Amino acid sequence: MKYLMIHFYFLVSLFVCNHSYSQDISFEAKASKNSLGINERLRIDFTMNQNGDNFNPPNFSNFTVIGGPNQSVSTSWVNGKKTFSKTFTYFLSPQKKGLLRIGQASIEIDGEIYKTIPIEIKVSEAVDKPRDPNSPEYLIDENLHLVTEISNNTPYLNQGITVLYKLYFRSPLQISDARESDSPKFKDFWSHQIKIPQLKVERGNYKGIDYNVVVWRKTVLYPQKTGELILDPLTLSLMIDIPSKRTDFFGNRVYEQASRSISSGKKVIKVKNLPETGKPSSFSGAVGKFDFNVSVNKDALKASESFQVKVKVSGLGNLKLFNLPNIVVPNTLEVYEPERDEKIKIILKGMQGSTEDNYTIVPKFKGKYPLSPISFSYFDPELERYFDLKSQPLSVDVYEGPVSSSNLTITGQDVNSQANILNNDQTFRFIKLESNLESISRESFLGSKVFYLLMASPFIILLLIFLIWRNSIKKSSNIENLRQREANKLSRKFLGEAKKKLGDKNNFYDSLELALYNYLKARLKIKNLDYTKEKIKEVLIGKNISEKEIDIFIQVIKNCEIARFSPTTDVKMKSDFDKALTIMSTIDKKL
Q1: In this structure, are residues 408 and 310 in contact, taking their beta carbons and an 8 Å threshold?
Q2: What is the pLDDT of residues 340-380, one digit of tens each?
Q3: Domain residue spans of the chain
Q4: Of 147, 185, 164, 89, which Cα lies nearest the Cα of 265?
Q5: Distance in angstroms between the alpha carbons of the first and the last residue of the chain
Q6: What would the DSSP string read from start to end of 492-542?
Q7: What are the pLDDT digits (tens) for 143-179?
C-alpha cells in the first residue's frame, strides 16, 4: 500500500511538473521603440524561451527590412536551473507616416503553434539625428553604407547588366570582421557571380565625400522576364571598432566593438520587352553585338570522305542563351549531329567570346553540292534595332565517286531523243535480231554439266543451310557485344547532348545521367536491374579502380539525381560535366 501511494504521488508530481513546464513556454515580440521618425530605424526581437521550429515572421507591410533576420541563442545555468533564450532580430525602416502595425509571428514548439501579440508603431515626421560626434549610432549611420550599383535599371529582355555591391566606410570607423548573412537569389535572372580573389580596400567617392570602399560582390545578370523584377538585398554582419569617450594611459582613444547588420535594400529593375517592329523571322533571342560566319574546311573531296561546316557567332551578348541556325544542305549529303564549341568568358560587360556548331558531312555521290545561305539575326539594345546577317553561298565539289541518278540533268531534247530510239526499235520488231539455232553435235543431257549441277544441288543447299545456321549462332553469341556497342554509341550521344544543354538544368542532368548509365552498360556490362550504386561500386572495385575515383563517379550520379530538386548554377553543371568526362577517361585507361 505504501508503495502504491509513493507511485501515485510520483505520477502526480510528474504531471504537475510537465504541466507547469508547458505553461512556462513564452514567445514574444519586442520593439526597440514604439514611436519614431520616418527617417529612423526600428529594431524588433522575436524571443522564445524554448527551442522551436518553422519560425514564420510577419510580412512587415509598410516597412522595409534593412537587416536580418539575425539569430542568437543563449543558454545559462542559475542556481542549478537551466535558462534558454533564442532570438530572431530584424531591422526595419518605415515607409510612411502614421500608426503602423506589425503582425503576428509564429513558431512551432513541441508540436504546438505559438504566436506573438501584434505591435503598433507610431511613425511621425523626420527627426533630427543626434549630432554628438561620439555617439555610436551617429558614427555608424554617417560613416558606413552598403550600396547597390546597377549598370542599367531599364534593360531589355536578355540584355546583360552588371550589379556591384560596395561597402563604403570612413574614419573613425574600422571594420574588423565582415560576412554575408543574407545573399540575393536573383529570381527571374540568369546570373553569374564574378570571383573576387581577394577583397581590397580602395579609395572611392560616395555622394561627394571620400570613403574607403570594398567591392564585396560582382554579378552579371540577364533578365529572363519582362516587367518589374526585384533584386533582393545583400545583408552583411559586421564587427565595427568605434572610438569611445575613454582614453588609455597615454591619452589615446579607446576603441569599443559593436556588431551591426547592414543591408543594401531591395532594388527594382524594369525590364522592357523586345520590339515587335522589324523583328526578323530568323530571330531566336540573341541580344547584344555579334558577328556571324559559316565556313567549310574543304571545297573539293572524294565521295565517302568527310568535310566540316562551321556555324559561328562571336561578340558580346547573351551567347549562352540562344540557338544557332541550322544549315541547309541537299538530301544526298549525310549530316551528323553538330558538336557545340563554346569559348565564352564572362566579364563585367557580360558574356564575351564565341559559340559555334561544327557539322560533319559525308557525301555519298559525285557532284557539285551547293550550301544555301542561312540567316542569323540579333537585337542591338544600344541602337535599339534588329540586324539580320546572312552567310555567303558555299559549294562543295565531290570530284570522284559513284554517280547518283539525281545528279543527271536531262533536257527536253534528250527526252525526245530517247523516245525516238524506243520508237525505232518497235518499228523493226518483225525482224528477229537473235537466232535460235541448235548445234548438230549436241551432247546428251546425261553426263552434261547441267546434269551434274542438278545432282550436286541438294548438297549445296544443305551446305548453305549449315552456313546460315552457324552464322546465326555466331550472331546470337555476339548479341551482348552488339548491345554494348549500341550502349557505347548512346553514351557518346547523350554526353554530347548534355554539353549542348549546359545552362538548362533539367535537360542537362537528364542527358548526363543517361550518358553515365549507357557508359556503365557498355564498359562494365552492368544490366538494367543491377543499376545501383552498390553494384556499380562492387564492379569498379573488381576492375582495380581506386576508391577516390569510384567516389567521384558515384557523386556525379548523385548530383544528377538531386539536381532536379535543388537549385544549381552553370558553374556546378560545368564542373559535373568535366568530372564525368575525366572519370570516364580514367576508367577507360584502366580497363
Answers
A1: no
A2: 999 999 999 999 999 999 999 988 888 899 999 999 999 99
A3: 25-124, 136-271, 286-400, 479-590
A4: 147
A5: 79
A6: HHHHHHHHHTTT-HHHHHHHHHHHHHHHHHHHS---GGG-SHHHHHHHHHH
A7: 899 999 999 999 999 999 999 999 999 888 888 888 8
| Rounded distance between C-alpha atoms, residue 261 and residue 264, angstroms | 10
The topology under which CATH files domain 479-590 is Four Helix Bundle (Hemerythrin (Met), subunit A) (1.20.120)
Whether the Cβ atoms of residue 140 and residue 258 lie closer than 8 Å to each other: yes
pLDDT tens-place string over residues 259-269:
888 888 889 99
What is the model's pLDDT at position 323?
Answer: 92
3-state secondary structure of 228: strand
- With beta carbons less than 8 A apart as the criterion, state whether 366 and 355 touch: no
What is the pLDDT confidence band of residue 421, given thresholds at 50, 70 and 90?
Answer: very low
The class (CATH top level) of 25-124 is mainly beta
Q: Answer yes or no: same fold for 25-124 and 286-400.
A: yes
Question: Cell 545552362 belongs to which residue?
Answer: 503
Strand bridging mode 394-400 / 300-302: parallel
Strand pairing report for 283-296 and 267-271: unpaired
Q: What is the pLDDT of residue 416?
A: 32
- What residues are paired with 73 via a beta bridge? 86
Query: In this predicted model, what pLDDT tens digit does every residue of 483-528 receive, in sequence order?
Result: 556 556 666 777 787 777 777 777 888 888 888 877 777 777 666 5
**Residue 13 in this model has a pLDDT that exceeds 50:** no
The answer to whether residues 318 and 286 touch, using CB atoms and an 8 Å cutoff, is yes
CA angle 52–55–59, rounded 5-degree value: 160
pLDDT for 182 equals 83
For 393, phi and psi rounded to 5 degrees?
A: -65, 135
In angstroms, rounded to a whole number, what is the distance separating the alpha carbons of residues 397 and 368?
4
Length of the chain equals 591
Three-state secondary structure of 97-153: CEEEEECCCEEEECCEEEECCCEEEEEECCCCCCCCCCCHHHHHHHHEEEEEEECCC
DSSP 323: P
Q: Is 388 a residue whose pLDDT tops 80? A: yes
Instruction: Cell 569611445: give the residue.
Output: 244
- In terms of Cα–Cα distance, which of 162, 112, 121, 136 is closest to 34? 121
Q: What is the pLDDT of residue 495?
A: 77
User: Is the torsion defined by CA of 164, 68, 239, 40 positive or negative?
Assistant: positive
Phi, psi dihedral angles at 383 (to 5 degrees): -85, -10
**Predicted structure pTM score:** 0.51
How large is the greatest C-alpha to C-alpha distance in the chain, in angstroms? 145
Closest to 350 (Cα-Cα) out of 222, 245, 485: 222
557: region left, alpha or beta (phi > 0 left; psi from -120 to 50 alpha)? alpha
Cell numbers for 436, please give them.
535460235
Q: Is 286-400 in CATH node 3.30.70?
A: no
pLDDT at 226 over 90: yes
Residue 488's CB: how many other CB atoms inside 10 A?
Answer: 15
CB 55 within 8 A of CB 88: yes
pLDDT, residue 149, reads: 94
Other C-beta atoms within 10 Å of 171: how many?
Answer: 10
- Across residues 434-448, what is the average pLDDT? 58
